[in-house]
User: Which sequence fits this backbone?
């Protein structure tokens, strides 16, 4: 597991098996939403998603 904290838009904690990084759907990867850091990705532009059969 990673020391990275889970963001609101993450489906699970970063570093969990069968996960990957994906573009944040709220800010489209820009890291900002309505002129502020995106609340879903905390300004990173990406979220952790589950891939495959878990």
Assistant:
């Amino acid at each position: 597991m990673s020391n990275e904290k889970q963001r609101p838009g993450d489906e699970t904690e970063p570093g969990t098996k069968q996960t990957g990084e994906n573009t944040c759907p709220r800010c489209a990867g820009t890291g900002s939403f309505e002129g502020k850091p995106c609340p879903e990705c905390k300004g990173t532009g990406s979220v952790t998603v589950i891939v495959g059969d878990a």
Notes: The radius of gyration is 11 Å. The mean pLDDT is 88. DSSP finds no helices and four strands in the chain.
